[in-house]
Amino acid sequence: MGNWRLVMEQAIKEIINDLKFMVKDEPEAESDDVKLERFKSMLEKNIQSVLSKIGVPKRFLSPKSTARLNLKSGYYFHGPVGTGKTDLAVSFLKNVILNSEPLCEYDGRYRLQDNIGLFVSVPVMLLNIRGAFKSETVEEMDLIKKYMKPEILILDDLGTEKTTDWVIQTLYVIINSRYEEDKQTVITSNYSLDEIRKNLNDKIASRIIAMTEVIEIKGIDRRSAISVVK
């Protein structure tokens, strides 16, 4: 267990260092406002790298959606396959990161907050957590906490996983924890919340309703016109 934690701590340090985007040889007399603008400019240039490091698949690193959404809110995007739900979620994640408040280092330079965000496919997340059962060095709860901590979490494709008591319990623990901690969460699904209520349970659907704005994405596929209806 100790070795695993050391590996995880080192990995987290490397990610944080990668996300600092510090500009070397900055003039000492440069004002805080100028340093902040330089950071924001560098962040925007490197946003694809940031998205990749927090789990966004290569296909979605350049989201096309231009929908204007409340960056302080959580969302539940649901609709048929291929209507751009994941693209919309990644576009939202990108805008939240670009508009987030950076941390100022002791030397006056800026970096992104720790645990700024995470993107994960729900079936993959569940496979990873279940894999902890077979591991001698990783505990299931350690992996579950990984999905509780991010300031913004994208849960992609909720409802495509095979439903079992373990799946329902694990999803509830993660979603309820984020609800209680008031953590921003965006969920995509092919299913309406009424269907989630039937396929999973009422508690999960209830938490999602309480912590997100529910938006239906209409359209045949991404090449068709997409209408967004609240």
Automatic annotation (TrEMBL):
One GO biological process term: DNA replication
GO molecular function, one term: ATP binding
CDD domains: AAA
InterPro entries: IstB_ATP-bd, P-loop_NTPase
Domain of life, per lineage: Bacteria
Domain IstB-like ATP-binding as annotated: residue spans: 142-219
PANTHER family reported for this sequence: ATP-BINDING PROTEIN RV3427C IN INSERTION SEQUENCE-RELATED, CHROMOSOMAL REPLICATION INITIATOR PROTEIN DNAA
Protein name: AAA family ATPase
Organism annotation: Acididesulfobacter guangdongensis
